[in-house]
Amino acid sequence: MKRNYEGLIVLNTVGKEESVDALVSNLGRDIEAEGAKLEQIDHIGKRKFPYGSKGLSDGYYVNYHFTAEPTVI
Predict the structure, then answer these.
(1) What are phi and psi of 72, to 5 degrees?
(2) In this structure, which of 1, 19, 38, 68 has its CB flanked by the most CB atoms within 10 Å?
(3) Local confidence pLDDT in tens for the 73 residues of the chain
(4) 48, 65, 25, 44: CA torsion to nearest 10
(5) CA–CA separation, 19 vs 43, rounded Å?
(6) CA-CA distance, 27 to 49, in Å (whole number)?
(7) Between β-strands 3-11 and 37-53, what pairing exists: parallel, antiparallel or unpaired?
């Protein structure tokens, strides 16, 4: 039985700002290659982290909505 899932991914775009769309679509293809069906991709955008992480101060947030069998996850 397929279920609905959401996956929030934060991309490190330092030096790759122009290729964000390519990164997002590549990750979408990877999700589908595992057997899931993408329903929607929300580009939340670049946000600052409340606390720096390994020298990073911000990231590009993307939320993937998909349906899949639990075994796929």
Answers:
(1) -70, -35
(2) 68
(3) 999 999 999 998 887 777 899 999 999 999 999 999 999 999 999 999 888 777 888 999 999 999 999 998 8
(4) -20
(5) 14
(6) 22
(7) unpaired
Structural contact between residues 6 and 68, judged by C-beta atoms closer than 8 angstroms: no
Place of tokens 């279920």: 3
- Joined tokens for residue 19: 């290729």
Cα separation, 39 vs 43, in Å, equals 14
Question: DSSP 3-state assignment of 16?
Answer: coil
* C-alpha distance from residue 70 to each of 4, 18, 32 (Å): 10, 34, 14
Distance CA 62, CA 12 (A): 11
- Alpha helices (H) in the chain, listed in sequence order: 20-33
